[in-house]
User: Fold this.
Amino acid sequence: ALPISDTTYKLCYRQAATSTWVTAGTIIVLGRRTQLTALQDLYSATNGPSWYKSFNWGGSNPCVFHGVRCNANNAVTSIHLGRNRLAGSIPVTFFLSDLAGTLTYLALDMNNITGSIPSAMGAMKVLEFVDLGFNQMIGTLPPQLLGLAKIDVVYISNNNFQGEVPEAVDSLSLQWLRNNLTAFVEVVVAPECPVDTVECVDEGSTASGVSECGYDGITETECVVMGCCFNAQAPLVFGGTTCFTKRSVTFLTYPQCEAYNCTTQVVVD
Assistant:
């Protein structure tokens, strides 16, 4: 297990001729961070004082930090800091922390994040959604990220990643757009039962057959990635929220059918 705090070790070797010990240097073993200290590391590493919004980030309760949400046990479950002028690299200590067991949603899109994705991101065992799109990140994609048991969506559009796409991509809803990745692995889509064509309605979340989607303050990119509609004007005219679900194009024409079972059939020649 990692130590609670950073620990510095001195490296020494003994000279054969004189049997004396000589100091060759030092190494620092990073200690495991609490959720609070992990977020403080992220704040410091990405020029927190220059963020657009950093309400309460100087306090001791992560659950009231801007963009941070917690569960009933006051454990951080989601971080939404898109379009917030983060600048710098994501520190390794952010992943080697108590966030690893609770964080399911991480959105840091549309900032100026640089550097690569650390392999330590593989420690985030319950992570389901990652959005790092529209940054300045480089390097290759660590297989530890795509090997996470619960990962479902990884959005990395508009960065400078290079190298081959890992084979794990075919199990993800993954956006590889506008990078320099090669050897794209074609996603095999299983046959599915037919579904109604859906659309976004002008009235937003207050329209019949439509419900709210996401959370208060959600960005347009996050809303679209979740498969929902975004209309910043809808709440001003009709009320409701800016992000809302799509509706069947036949909703107002035909009555809604009762639920039924549909079994996928695969025909093999």
